[in-house]
Amino acid sequence: MRLISFLSFIILFFSCQPSSEISQKTSHINWQEINEGTCVDYDFINKNKDKVIIIEFWSTSCGPCIEAMHHLKELKTKFGDELQIVCVSSEPINRINAFISDNNFPFDFIYDKDRSLSKVFPHNGIPHSVLIDKNGQIHANTIPGYITNEIITELINGGKPRLPVIECKTKSDEIAESTKINKALVSFELRNSDIADRQMKMELLDVKVPKQIIKGWQGNALVDTFQIINSCTITKATILELYQYAFANLTKARFIFDEELNYINSFSPLSLYNIDFSCSNFAGDYRKILLGQLNAAFNLKTSINEKDVVFYKLMKISEKDCVIKDGYEAFDVKGSSSISFKEFIVNKNCTAAELVSLIENQLLYVSQNGEYINDPKRAVRYPVVTDLSGKYTINISINSDKANVDDWLKLYAKNGLHLIKTRGKIAFVKIEKDK
């Protein structure tokens, strides 16, 4: 009888123990693992019991995410069954399957179709890592590069290591921090990015504001008019990306700089910046003033150089189901694009100038001899230009194994984008130290 009572006490004791933090937060989640191309139920809590866990939010189109996976693979190789890495993505499952098939990462891949996990673990950008200790307690929201061998070892041994963490910013936080229209004709604020900032986010705003100006010292000198205030908020950008915006989104191929200035294209945390900039039309040209601010802040100078080069020109945009001119008013397209060496997927509203920038970034990966170039150091950048204007709603999806430029020109033409190859003078921007 005493034995039965004792066993009942033990069962009651353990049943009353509080569940772990991760168990409580995800109790309503229907975890779905991608296994051999299909989704199957995944017992997250029991499979990963007594292990250090990294929940990694990622996507196939995120370069830093893929780079981080190689780092996480090294951690998994070192710590084996003591560490579990669970990768979560909400993008189309066919892309995830293709990535899993083409790579050999020893992770569990979860399909978060309705973004329920993203709601439980909100984040402003990817890659994003949730680090969980062996007791199921969430230790940190961070980025994978900060999770080192030492951090994992300390967690395995029951310690509480310190590492940089991300505080997710809500929409109200972002609105509170956004550029405010004030009385300044020019406002410029430059600061280092925070790891919680969204990955390369750009928000533009044009506001028409009533204004009274005084034109003289005598009667009737007060005149009612309007001023146009252009403003931008850019987060987590390299110096080169800030210059790209100042030069109306020229592609990186159009910038020339010496090796000593390679840091302007560095993605290290200390080389990423946020800017808030606003400028009244009473002060002058918006982009020229921004360029002057950037030059002064980074001690650089720019000049325009013309070079005789081979380039491609977008001659015509034919309206099709996937290309609609002046579709801005009719369609609410938030905008997305995925450009890689085998795909050109654009689903957004954009101008003709923005469209040629996307094409130029894709042609970087193909060559004249039918070989894909997936190494930026070997890539040959061909400028793409256009004299076309106007705004378009684009819904193009090209996925092809063809690695020849001529083949891709035919694919573009089939989707309403007609380009020709030519030669002539193209403007390039030279960036130098302002000594």
Key terms:
12 helices; 5-stranded mixed sheet; alpha+beta; about 25% helix; about 425 residues; 4-stranded antiparallel sheet
What's this model, at a glance?
26% of the residues lie in helices and 33% in strands. The chain is of the alpha+beta class.
In words, what does this structure look like?
The chain is of the alpha+beta class. The chain has twelve helices and 19 strands. A five-stranded mixed beta sheet has the order 5-4-3-6-7. The protein has a four-stranded antiparallel beta sheet with strand order 8-12-10-9, with helices on one face. Helix 5 links the parallel strand 4 and strand 5. Helix 9 packs antiparallel against helix 10. The protein is globular and about 70 Å long. The relative contact order is 0.09. About 5% of the residues have low confidence.
How helical, in percent, are the residues?
Answer: 25-40%
Cα-to-Cα separation, first versus last residue:
91 Å
Sheet with most strands: strand arrangement: 5-4-3-6-7
Structure class: alpha+beta
Helix segment tally: 12
| Biggest sheet character | 5 strands, mixed
Radius of gyration, CA atoms, in whole angstroms: 26 Å
> Would you tell me the overall average pLDDT?
81
Shape annotation:
globular
Total E-strand runs: 19
Residue stretches low in confidence (pLDDT < 50, at least 5 long) are 9-17, 175-181, 328-334
